[in-house]
Amino acid sequence: MAACVLRRGLLSTFSKINKKHSYRVLYVDFNSKHDLQRRRLLCSTCNVFDIQQKRFMSSRPEGKVLETVGVFEAPKQHGKYETGQLFLHSVFGYRGIVLFPWHARLYDRDVSPQAAESKSEPPGAHGAKEVKGKTHTYYQVLIDTRDCPHISQRSQTEAVTFLANHDDSRALYAIPGLDYVSHEDILPYNSTDQVPIQHELFERFLMFNSSKVPPFVPRDTLKAWQEKNHPWLELSDVHRETTENIRVTVIPFYMGMREAQTSHVYWWRYCIRLENLGSEVVQLRERHWRIFSLSGTLETVRGRGVVGREPVLSKEQPAFQYSSHVSLQAPSGHMWGTFSFQRANGEMFDVAIPSFSLDSHGHGDNPYAFLF
Question: What are the residue boundaries of the ApaG domain, all occurrences included (predicted)?
Answer without folding.
Answer: 240-365
